[in-house]
Specification:
- InterPro entries: FAD-bd_oxidored_4_C, FAD-bd_PCMH, FAD-bd_PCMH-like_sf, FAD-bd_PCMH_sub1, FAD-bd_PCMH_sub2, FAD-linked_Oxase-like_C, FAD-oxidored/transferase_4, Oxid_FAD_bind_N.
- One of its GO terms (molecular function) is oxidoreductase activity.
- Belongs to the FAD-binding oxidoreductase/transferase type 4 family.
- Keywords: FAD, Flavoprotein, Oxidoreductase.
- With about 500 residues, the protein is an alpha+beta fold.
- It is built from 18 helices and 16 strands.
- It has four domains: about 120 residues, Uridine Diphospho-n-acetylenolpyruvylglucosamine Reductase, domain 2 (2-Layer Sandwich), CATH 3.30.43.10; about 120 residues, Uridine Diphospho-n-acetylenolpyruvylglucosamine Reductase, domain 3 (2-Layer Sandwich); about 110 residues, 2-Layer Sandwich (Alpha-Beta Plaits), CATH 3.30.70; about 80 residues, Alpha-Beta Plaits.
- The protein has a seven-stranded antiparallel sheet with strand order 13-10-12-11-15-16-14, with helices on both faces. The chain has a five-stranded antiparallel sheet with strand order 5-6-9-7-8.
- Helix 9 packs antiparallel against helix 11.
- The chain is globular.
- It starts with about 35 loop residues before the first helix and ends in a 14-residue tail after the last helix.
- The protein binds flavin-adenine dinucleotide (FAD), D-malate and zinc ion.
- D-malate binds next to strand 14.
Length: about 500
């Protein structure tokens, strides 16, 4: 059961453009003037490099990772500390100047770029790791720390970050928390709602809210930090974070398993959970369309002699190599005996493991090379998980390529529809939406499992939230940011 897969090289994503200005806020904002610029310079201690005003320099910050959403900001500010963030927000609130907090700008729902000409508040210089406690495993850092930077800091200390995503080289902790990012370790370590112990946030009026507890247990009333986890920069700017970090597993195995039916995938998941228990650290799903896609764009080789319909990337992580290997072997023998997998490969060394991971982690980038990509990130009951992919294939016929992948262990489907045409088309969107959202709502799923709502789905929120929930969300927004200066036109329809 041991194969060796080829080496690979990373490629750059080539994107396309769409300007999605369908819905308008009723809030009125002032236009930036010279006096504002002088005020921002003074707040930033007259460090000229902390203000970016050049049109060309602003291009990449005005456009999202997929090159799908474009803003028209004339100013980017790079505060160095919480006090500067607070002064900027206080001033913007008084002057009614809107702004969009920006982390690594890897978001996939148009939340991190201006809708119009909002000021971009870049958190990239607030990137200090302040403290790590080896007894509790709690790390405290600034919000602009890049996920990979934290992983590299923790590794020699024998700890790891409890979440991981393909965008780890660019995304920031503040962005991760603001989107309540999921990723490939959620199955093992749970969501950020559990792993973030505390945070510091600056409210729209400049008030610094210190919620930066490092306690695991604290039941003193409402857990206010939870409001900021997943609020996508609409309720405050996260400036500091305290996070639980688990010990880094010392024994890791990665397997790529092929199945010929989705019913086998479901049975495999049950067996992986029961037979591997606490060493199961990832259970990721890809259909054949994803493998074909990745093989078209990455220097990887066909993994198996046959081409079955479904693929599972399974990872175990533990601390006892012999024990973990034995458990994995027992599991593999069982699933082969039961015919749950039709082929497979296991990698115990890091080079081959990373090759297997490339099949999963380069899907997003490979999709970007196909043309325009319509991305849907859904939570669905497991029986509808793949059904929707098949339904969409029937619905779209030869007009588009439909693939399904995702965190099947968390019932999170990434439904991706691509067309060779580089331009996003309204006709294609109308063929997909609201159909996909209605289907998801009908089956009590969620229209955003992990990427958030951003600009893309704000008018579709009602498919996953009741009107009384949306009313309460609006009440919170109005009381915390009455002038709507924070990330206008995102998350909530006003
Ligand atoms: P940005 O994109 O800059 O911002 C995202 C949102 O957060 C915006 O609304 C922004 O205003 C707000 N924000 C950013 N920083 C702050 C702050 N300090 N305070 C307040 N608001 C802030 N997502 C997943 O959940 N799981 C995945 O597996 C995953 N994989 C990905 C793989 C690739 C290749 C790519 C490109 C993206 C992936 N994503 C994934 C989406 C994205 O990476 C995540 O949403 C990530 O958490 C965004 O972090 P960021 O720093 O880039 O935030
Ligand atoms: C992933 O799981 O790879 C990400 O969420 C990115 C994507 O959906 O494209
Ligand atoms: Zn994902």
């Amino acid at each position: 059961m041991l194969n060796h897969l080829s080496k690979l090289v990373s490629n750059r994503y080539i994107g396309t453009t769409i300007c999605s200005k369908r819905c308008y806020t009723t809030f009125k904002y002032n236009k930036l003037n010279d006096k504002d610029i002088e005020e921002f310079k003074s707040i930033l201690n007259n460090e000229e490099t902390l203000l970016i005003r050049d049109k060309d320099d602003l291009v990449s910050f005005n456009s999202d990772w997929m090159k799908k959403y474009k803003g028209n900001s004339q100013l980017l500010l790079k505060p160095r500390n919480t006090e500067q963030v607070s002064s900027i927000l206080r001033y913007c609130n008084e002057r009614k100047l809107a702004l969009v907090p920006q982390g690594g700008n890897t978001g996939l729902v148009g939340g991190s770029v201006p809708y119009d000409d909002e000021i971009i508040l870049s958190m990239s210089l607030m990137n200090k790791i302040n403290d790590f406690d080896p007894v509790t495993g709690v790390v405290t850092c600034e919000a602009g720390v890049i996920l990979q930077q934290l992983e590299d800091y923790l590794e020699p200390l024998g700890y790891t970050v409890p979440f991981d995503l393909g965008a780890k080289g660019s995304c920031q902790l503040g962005g991760n928390i603001s989107t309540n990012a999921g990723g490939i370790r959620l199955l093992r370590y749970g969501s950020l709602h559990g792993n973030v112990l505390g945070l510091e946030a600056v409210l729209a009026n400049g008030t610094v809210l210190n919620l930066n507890s490092t306690l695991r247990k604290d039941n003193t009333g409402y857990d206010l930090k939870q409001l900021f986890i997943g609020s996508e920069g609409t309720l405050g700017v996260i400036t500091k974070v305290s996070l639980i970090t688990p010990p880094k597993p010392t024994s890791v195995n990665v397997a790529l398993l092929a199945c010929d039916s989705f019913s086998s995938v479901k049975k495999l998941l049950i067996q992986a959970k029961t037979k591997l228990g606490d060493i199961l650290s990832a259970f990721e799903f890809m259909d054949r369309g994803c493998i074909d896609l990745v093989l078209r764009h990455q220097p990887l080789q066909e993994p198996f002699s046959e081409k079955p319909k479904f693929y599972i990337l399974l990872e175990t992580s533990g601390f006892n190599e012999t024990h973990d290997q034995e458990k994995l072997n027992e599991f593999l023998e069982y699933i082969m005996e039961q015919g749950l997998t039709v082929d497979g490969t296991v990698a115990t060394d890091s080079k081959n493991q990373s090759t297997i991971w490339k099949f999963r982690e380069t899907i997003t980038e490979s999709l970007g090379k196909e043309g325009a990509v319509y991305k849907y990130d859904l939570s669905l009951p497991i029986d509808q998980f793949y059904e929707l992919v098949e339904v969409m294939r029937l619905r779209l016929g030869s007009k588009a390529n439909v693939v399904g992948f995702g965190h099947v262990g968390d019932a999170n489907l990434h439904l991706n529809i691509s067309t060779p045409n580089q331009k996003y088309s309204k006709e294609m969107i109308n063929l997909i939406e609201p159909f996909v959202y209605e289907y998801t709502s009908k089956h009590n799923g969620s229209i955003s499992a992990e990427h958030g709502i951003g600009l893309m789905k704000k008018d579709h929120l009602h498919y996953s939230k009741t009107s009384s929930s949306i009313q309460l969300m609006k009440l919170l927004k109005n009381s915390m940011d009455p002038n709507h200066i924070l990330n206008p036109n995102k998350v909530l329809p006003f």
